[in-house]
Amino acid sequence: MYGNDYGPDDAAGESGKDRLPRRDEPLNAAEAADLEGYFDGLIDADQRIEPRDAMPEAYRSTLIRMIAQHAHSEIIGMQPEGNWISRAPSLRRKAILMAKVQDEAGHGLYLYSAAETLGVTREELLDRLHTGRQKYSSIFNYPTLTWADVGAIGWLVDGAAIMNQVPLCRCSYGPYARAMIRVCKEESFHQRQGFEILWVLARGTAEQKAMAQDAANRWWWPSLMMFGPPDSGEDASKGHTAQSMAWGIKRFSNDDLRQKFVDMTVPQAERIGITLPDPDLRWNEERGHYDFGEVDWAEFKRVLSGDGPMNAQRMAHRVRAHEEGAWVREAAVAYAERRAAAAAEAGAA
Ligand code: BYC
After folding, report:
1. Of 97, 242, 261, 349, which alpha carbon lies 20 to 30 A from 85's?
2. How many CB atoms within 10 Å of residue 72?
3. How far is CA 193 from CA 90, 93, 182, in A?
4. Of 128, 126, 157, which Cα lies nearest the Cα of 141?
5. Max CA-CA distance within the chain?
6. Which atom of ligand 1 is nearest to the CA of 254?
7. Distance between CA atoms of 248 and 237, rounded to whole angstroms?
8. How far apart are CA 78 and CA 73, in angstroms?
9. Which run of H or of E encompasses 289?
10. Among the atoms of ligand 1, which is closest to the Cα of residue 164?
11. What backbone phi and psi angles, to 5 degrees, belong to 249?
């Protein structure tokens, strides 16, 4: 077992805390005898935990839950947008949308790989998804009714995703933090393409403008739900946030990120020329933030329990795609085995 030997040079490390020296030798006897102390020391020094470091079981299982849920969201998130690839309004829009949906598949792959470093297989994670034992983001249980929804997903859903994921580039678990760096770069492109779709529609015909407004109306509240339930003030002890922040997995509360998202997005809506569907939305000079209305948490709970508009369809499609893809997985394994056998034979010769 080794100490934490990655990290300070990547996107992490603005904490200013002293770093433990980089390690490239096994733990000494005292460190090995006090693994919990060693783990806490790494966390206190704001260093990365790597797969080969000892870690408390609860830290490991929290990360498996969170990274797997994130990976599942990426691949289920391909469905609402994939719905529009064959109907994109121009060749340019189609090419951009295909690239974006492929990016989401890639994000799923990095994230399943990151989860696998915690000692769980991809097959097991997919099985947990398909049997409802793990979740994916609530947001993907809403339908994409018009082309403007593709714009709203890019602008609002990817905008919310970036707000949540940029701090995850500083997550204490190395493989997740490193995966997030590339994911966030791609998400920023996605967010801009969504903004641009709505910008163009808002400058089009009256019908196109109405379509952009309708999409924003339908996606605004579900986007605010993406950040998760309230976890500050009197809700501070609810959910996983306090423990995950103590472990350096989460860097901000759900409520803080939601507020940052609202503050970032309201001026963007004004620039596009669409209104956000919240009569309580207004700048609060004293707080230096926008006030906004109450999220419908009963709706969030309904969607999480499987009763959203698209839950059944999303899962049925996912399971079908997995079953129909069995031959690809079998062929890939057979090919890898044949190559390995050929390499072994060449090595023996
Ligand atoms: N949907 O204590 P909390 C994308 C659950 S991909 C469903 O705050 P935590 C994109 C939560 O799991 C976007 N469930 O939990 C892809 C927990 O359940 P349990 C996905 C939710 O984990 C393709 C309970 O509620 N991003 O943007 O500390 C195309 C209590 O919550 C949700 C990520 O996954 C939700 N929205 O914080 C386009 C980012 N929210 O264990 C775009 C990584 C909460 O009590 N994940 N729950 O059964 C995270 O940052 C955190 O896991 C969350 C929740 C902020 C989401």
Report:
1. 261
2. 24
3. 14, 9, 17
4. 157
5. 78
6. 55
7. 17
8. 9
9. strand 289-291
10. 50
11. -85, -55
- What Å distances lie between residue 8 and 4, 11, 25, 150, 200, CA to CA? 10, 8, 18, 38, 42
Give the residue from 149, 182, 11 showing the smallest Cα distance to 83: 149
222 phi/psi in degrees, rounded to 5 = -60, -30
**79 with 317: CB under 8 angstroms?**
yes
Return the ligand 1 atom nearest residue 225 CA: 36
Q: What is the DSSP letter of 286?
A: T
Q: Whose CA is nearest to atom 30 of ligand 1?
A: 239
Rama region for 248: left / alpha / beta (φ>0; ψ in -120 to 50; rest): left
- Condensed to tens digits (0 to 9), the pLDDT of residues 17-30 reads 444 444 556 667 77
290 membership: H or E segment, kind and range = strand 289-291
pLDDT tens, position by position, 197-254: 999 999 999 999 999 999 999 999 999 999 999 999 999 999 999 999 999 999 999 9
303 DSSP assignment: I
Residues 6 or more apart from 138 whose CB is under 8 A from it?
A: 222, 225, 226, 300, 303, 304, 308
CA of 211 to the centre of ligand 1 (A): 29
Which amino acid residue places its CA nearest to atom 17 of ligand 1?
Answer: 239
Q: Provide the token pair at 316.
A: 């049925």
CA terminus-to-terminus distance, the chain: 35
| Cβ neighbours of residue 190 closer than 8 Å, sequence gap 6 or more | 100, 103, 154, 158
Closest CA to 276 of 334, 225, 216: 216
